Amino acid sequence: MILGNRRIKQKDIAKELEISRERVQHTITDILGYRKVSARWVPRMMTDEIKMQGNTICAELLKHYEEEGEEFIQLIVTGDESWEHHYDHENKRQSMKYRYKSSPSTRKFKVFASPEK
């Protein structure tokens, strides 16, 4: 049942097999060697290309500031806008699944709200 659905709950297994939840947990953890873990959250997936772009842009802005000083800062326009953030993601508990203790941990990138005017 676990191999078919690694996100299955112990109570569902107990109900299906008509055994106690304690027996299900003992079988899963002690006999089969599984544990239920969630993916580890990491900030954001940044490729080498994105990192390189960020470095290039920062270097250009710093160069402009060093050449023009405060005049460059005055050219930066900021404004106040209303944005709605929307996203649909599963939380850590929803992403939990059974794995062997020796399995490598999985990563789950944080989902940031995508802005929309």
Automatic annotation (TrEMBL):
Superkingdom of the organism of origin: Eukaryota
A GO MF label: nucleic acid binding
Annotated protein name in UniProt: Histone-lysine n-methyltransferase setmar-like protein
Organism: Elysia marginata
